[in-house]
Amino acid sequence: MMRRLLVANRGEIAVRVIRAARDLGVPTVAVYSDADRGALHTELADRAVCLGPAPAGASYLRQDLLLHVAEATGCDAIHPGYGFLSENPGFAASVEEAGATFVGPPAEVIAVMGDKAMARKAVAKVDVPVVPGSPDAVSNVDEAVAAAAECGYPVLLKARAGGGGKGMRVAGDEDELRECFTLARQEAAGAFGDDGIYVEKYLQRVRHVEVQVLADRHGRVIELGERDCSMQRRHQKVVEEAPSPALDAGRRQDLAGLAVRAAESVGYVGAGTVEFVLDMDTGAVYFIEMNTRIQVEHPLTEVLTGLDLVAWQLRIAAGEALQADPPPRRGHAMEFRINAEDWKRGFVPAPGTLTVFDPPAGPGIRVDTHCRPGAVISPHYDSLLGKLIVHGADRDEVLRRARRALSEFRVDGVHSTVGLHEWLLTQPEVVAGTYTTRYLTEALA
Length: 445
Ligand code: ADP
Description:
By secondary structure, the protein is α+β, with helices and mostly antiparallel strands. It is 34% helix and 26% strand. It folds into three domains: 5-103, Rossmann fold, CATH 3.40.50; 132-201, Dna Ligase, domain 1 (2-Layer Sandwich), CATH 3.30.1490; 206-443, D-amino Acid Aminotransferase, Chain A, domain 1. The strands form six sheets. The chain has an eight-stranded antiparallel β-sheet with strand order 13-12-9-10-11-14-21-19. Helix 4 packs antiparallel against helix 5 and helix 7 crosses helix 8 (174-192).
C-alpha cells in the first residue's frame, strides 16, 4: 500500500476518498482553498494544507502547488477525485515524473480517451460500435457536411475535448450545420482550449447506459455491471439507476463485453466507465466515450456488488491483482443528486449557508455528502450537496424507499433539488422506468 495519500479535490468526493483510505489504514493529506477552510474533508484527513484563493485556477487546479504539497508532506500517491485535474494527462505524467503514484490510468491512456475523436477510433478498431459520424475530428465545414450527408441529419457537433455535457450542438440540416460550425469551434476553443470538433448522428430517443470496469496492473479487466443515467438535463445526469430497466440479460451481457473490449484496447488501468447510448428506435448500442476516473454515480455499483470502488482504485494503484470472478449483483439501486439549485427557476445555482442539513437514514439508504449545518456553499464550485443512494431488493422497493427518504431529507438555507426528485417519483415514466434522455427537459417545459 502507499505510505501517504494526497487527496487533490474537495467536497463529497474528497470526503469519500479520505474514508476509503482510512479504511485501508492509509494516512491522508487534504488540500483546501480559502473558501473551504473548516470543510469536512479538511477535518477528516490527518493533515490539511491551504492551497490559496477560492477560484479553482488559484487553488485546486494548481499542479505545481499540489506536487509541492505532496513532496513536503511525504505523500507517495495522489488521488485526483473527479473534475479538476482528474482527466488531465499532463498532471498524471508530472505526478509520475515526481516519483509518486497517480491513482488512475497511465497518462497516455487518459490522453487517448480524453480526446473523444481518438477514443472513437481506438474502440472502433476492436469492433466496438461507435455512433455513425466522422471517422476523426473534421478540419473544415465541408468535411463536416460530408460526414453529415453520410450518416444523415440531425447531427451533433461535438468538441473532442468536451465534458460535463458542454460542447455539443445539434444541426437539423446542412444550412444549420454551416451556420453553427464556426461558432461550435470557437466555443470549444474557449471552453476546452482545443477547437477540435467531430460529427455524430444525433439519435432522437436514447438511453444513456454505462458500464463500470476495473482493470489491474497485471492485464486483468473486469466489468461490474451497468448504470442507467438517462435522467438528464442539458446532457448532465440528475438521477441514475442500476441495473438499467432498458436491458434484458442478453443485451446486458453484450454491453459488458463491449466495455471490457474497449478498456482492453487501450491497456486500461484502474476504475473507468465506458459510456454508451442505446437507440430505443432500433435497439442498437453505440460507444460515446470513456471516463478515466471515478464517477459521481459510482456508489450504485458499490451497493449492488458490495465492493468499495475507491478502495479498489487505491489497491490497484498499489499493484494488487483483481480476483478472477466479478462479484454477483444484488437488487436494484437509484441515486439522486441533491444540488444547491433553484430548480423551479431554471436550476440557477443557489449558494449560501446551510442552516439545516438533516439527511435521511434507515434500511437501504446511503448519503455521500460533505455538508452539515453551517457549511457554506460557495459559488466557486459545482453545486452538488450530496448524493442519496437508495438500495432495495427490486425496483418497486427502491421507489418506495426513495419517496420515504426524500420526505425525510431536510435542507434549509439554500434551495435544493430534493423537491424535484419527489416530483419525479410521482411521474408515470419514472415509475415505469421508460424515460429517455429527453424526458426531463420535455417534462419541465
Ligand atoms: P460529456 O463528456 O460532455 O458528458 P457525452 O459524449 O458523454 O458528453 O454525452 C453526454 C450526453 O449527451 C449523453 O449522455 C447523451 O444523453 C447525449 N448524447 C451524446 N451523444 C449523443 C448522440 N449521438 N445522440 C443523442 N444523444 C447523445
